[in-house]
Here is the input.
Amino acid sequence: MNEPIHDSSWKNLLFVLLGLILLLLIGMAGYVFIEDWDWTDSLYMTFITFSTVGFHEVRELHPTSKFFTMFIILSGLVLISLLSASVTSLFVRRELITNFKSKKMKKNIQRQKNHVILCGAGDTGKTVINEFHIARKPLVVLDQDEEVIAALHEQYPQILFIAGDGTKDEVLIEAGVEQASGLICTLSEDRDNLFVVISARNLNPGLNIISRSVDQHTTGKMYKAGASHVISPNLTEGLRMAATILRPNLVGFLDVMMHDDELQFRLEEVTVPENTSFEGKTLREIEIPQRTGLIVIAIKQTVDGKEQYNYNPQSGTKIQQGNVLIVLGNREKVERLNAHLVHPG
Here is the structure.
């Protein structure tokens, strides 16, 4: 409903401007016809008349021109008043719409639970945003650049955004850090990421915090500050470059798997819920490929207090509550598996 109001304000402003141009043309033609002035004098006389600046007439006016001038003055006063009202209305309505959207955004953020907060909407942050968009997972994005936030909100209207400094506690609280399940730091400076990690860990001790660290010497400090995982882009890029040379086909396959939006298969993870009826059942009994079309690549399990992965699990492998299934498929099939684990059949 906000967009039609915004459009009508621009239409009103356009009509007033067209009215002023029309009045200018009428005035010019009138002085040329009545006083036989040249077009330059007629334009100047018309302009100073409807703008009511109080300058003296170009020349002595004919009685008919005096009545014509009064018409120009009255029409100019009306149109300039309308112009002022239209401009004021445009800015006031824009401000009201902005405030309305901001309040609505804040209310939506306050209702979020177990969401993820992203600090920094640079190139790395935009990649994170796109992945959450594809996965349809709740995400709140923080960035100080209001123009970047506005552009991303247009592109991803379902994702929540806040224009603010993520290193400040009040901004993190506004983003719902106390109710969040995870936080991702992709700020360009390690110092800023470190501040975010410290603040977020103090505000939510159980938060899963992932931070980037450009300088590998900062990695240890990130972990000491409370980061759950630290990713160094330099190290990652080096490993990726080496792998592209050593295992080009494997890297190409993974690229397609992770980045092709049209591909029907992606690597996803599903956590076995506490209320599952398949507790202690084997993969053969659960019939995941038959029921959902997914392929189970690995199972993350806790054995003797240690987490480990069971790669390429056999059909006789039993699952327990809290196990994480690494599967190959799409989001629709993953949702089908989530439903199957809770309500079989």
About this structure: The CA atoms of residues 221 and 334 lie 37 Å apart. Residues 63-110 form the longest helix (48 residues).
